[in-house]
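User: I'm putting together a teaching handout on how multi-component assemblies are represented. Below are the sequence lines for each component of a complex, exactly as they appear in our records. Could you produce the 3D structure of the whole assembly as C-alpha cells, so the students can see both representations side by side? Please keep the chain order the same as the input.
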Amino acid sequence: MSKISKKTKPSKPKAATQINGQDIMGNEWAYSDEVREHFFKPQNFVTEAPKDYNGLGMVGSPACGDMMKVWLKIDSKTEKITKFFWQTFGCASAIAATSMLSVMVTEKGGKTIAEALKITPTDIIKRLSGLPSRKIHCSVLGDKALEAAINDYFQRTNQKERIKASGSRVIDKELNITDKDIEQAVKDGAKTLEEVQQKTKVGLGDPNCLPEAEELVRFYVEKYY
Amino acid sequence: MMKIMSKNKKIVYLDHAATTYLRPEVIKAMASFGSDNYGNPSSLYSKGREAKKALETARSKVAAILGCQPEEIIFEGSGTESDNHALIGTAYANRGRGNHLIATVIEHHAVLHACEFLETQGFEVTYLPVDKDGIVKLEELEKSIRQETILVSVVFANNEIGTVQPIREISQIIKKKNPKTYLHTDACQAAGFYELKVDELGVDLMTINGSKIYGPKGTGLLYVKKGTMIYPFIHGGGQEQGRRAGTENVAGIIGLATALELVQKEKAKENQRLIKLRDKLITGLLKIPKTVLNGHPTQRLPNNVNVTVLDIEGEAMLLHLDEAGICASTGSACSSGTLEPSHVIMALGHPYEMAHGSMRFSLGHVNTEEDIDYLLEVFPPIVEKLRAMSPVNLKNPKS
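Assistant: Of course. Below is the structure of the complete assembly, with chains in the same order as your input.
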C-alpha cells in the first residue's frame, strides 16, 4: 500500500537504466565491454596448479554458485606480488572480475602486499566499467580470495602476526553458531558439511546459511588437512 | 534452419519453453481485429456485434479442442493470471468446506507464489514431492488429500525439465479419496503436444496460455468445469460471464484460439519430428564427459532437453552460446532475478551445484537437424574452455 508522502518536493526518480540489475529492456546481460573482454579472453588463469607459488587462497563453493582459487608469487624482499594465477567457477562477472583483479595486482611490476590489500570490490567494479547490481557479490569474492592467499603467504613465511584476523562472525543466526565454531568442528575431525552439522547443528536453525557454512567447511578442511 | 540475419549473426533459437514467435497464420487471423474490427464486444451496434461474434467463435474453437462447453472457458490476460485465478479463486470460494490446498514442489512460480500468498491468508498448503525424474509421488498425493482439501494443482508438463505427469491417474486418486477436491492443471507447456480433452484428463480447471504455442503474449485461458465454485479474480464489468472483468482482448483471444487449433492439428506429426531431434540432442550432449540428463528419459515433452554440465556454471555457458548465436536457458542462480537456483532441479534431490550447471534447450517449429548439429559442434569447446579455468572437479555421477 502506498502511503501519502508528506514531502513537498517530488523525490528524485530512480535511475531508469537499472532496475534490479536489469536494464530497462529487461536485458540481464548488460555487461560492459570490459567485462565481456575479460570473460571471453581471461588473463592469468591456469588450467592446473602452478608449481611456483607461495600463497594460496580459496573462497566460495560450487554450491553457492561461485568459487575461486588464487595462487600468488610474492617477492619476499620487495613484497611485490609478481604472479597472480587463478581458477574460477562462476558466472561471467565472476570470471571477468577475477581476471581483472589479476591484472590490477600484477600490472606495472606488481603491487606490494600492502597495496594489494587495499583493493576494494568497488575498485574492481570501476575498472570493469560497472557490473549489474545483483552481480556485485561475485567480485567481492575476488578480493576475499586475494586476502586469503596473502594470509596463506604470511602463514608460510612465519609472519603469523600479520595475518589479518577475521573476528568471529555469526553464521547461523537462529542457533548463534559462528565461523569459529565451524573451524573448531573441522579441527575436531569433521570434514564435510554433514559431519560439521552433526557437531554444531549449523543450518538447522537457519537453512539460508548453509551455502556459507559449506564454504567455511571447505575452507577449513583445505587449511587443516 | 532458422537464420535471422542481424548484424551478420546467425540466430538459433532453442528457448521455445521461454516463449515462441507468432506464426504467420496467427498474425493473419489477428490482423483485422486491431484496425477494422476494433469494436468492444459489449457494444450493441454492428461493430460491437462483429467483435462479439469473433470472440464467441474463438471460444467455441477452444471448447471443441478441450471437449467442453464454450461457457466453461474464461479468457484471461496470461497463463500466470489463469493459475492465480484457479488457486485463489477456488480457495476463497470454498472456504466454507476447508482451508487446505495441495501443489507439487515443481509447479511454476505462478502457482507456487499464489500458494505462498494463500498461506499468508490462513490457508494451509501441502507441497508434494517428486521422484528423481520429476514424477509426482502418487502415494504421497493419496496420503495428503483430506476432507478439507479444496484443490490439488499439478503441472501437466514441467517448464524446466519437461517431465509429463500422469494427470488422469492423479485425477482418479483424488476423486476416489475426496470427490469434492478439485484438480487444476497448468498445461501451458503441454498444450502444444498433448490431447487436451478435459473429461479424459479428469481435470476441473486447466490453464493454457498463448505465448508458448506460437500465439500472442498477454493471453491465457482458464477452463472451469461447470459447477466449480470459483470467485472472479479481476472485478469490474461483467465480461466473461462476470468471472473476468475487463474489455476482452479480442485480437489476442483470436490469436490464442488460432494458435491452439494449429498446434493441436499438427501435433502428431510435429511431436514425432521433435522427439527425433530431442533425442539426437540428448545423446550428443551426454557424450560430453560429466553431463547428466535432468527429468524423465521418456515421459518428457517432445521439445525439452535439460542437462547439467558439472564443474561449470550456467550463465557463463549461456553467454558463450549467445556469442555463437544460440538462445537457451539455465537453472543457475546467477541468471535468475532472485539469485536462487532452480527450485525444480533442486526438487529432484540434486545438490545446488547441479542446478548451477543446468542448461535447458527447448525446441520448436523452426528448428532443424542442422540446428542440433550446430549446437553439438559449438557447445563442447565452450564446456572445455570453462572447465579448464574452473577449480571445481566434482565426482562424476556416471562413474
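A couple of points students might notice: The first helix of chain A runs from residue 33 to 40. The helical segments of chain A are 33-40, 92-106, 113-117, 121-127, 136-156, 179-187, 193-200, 210-224.
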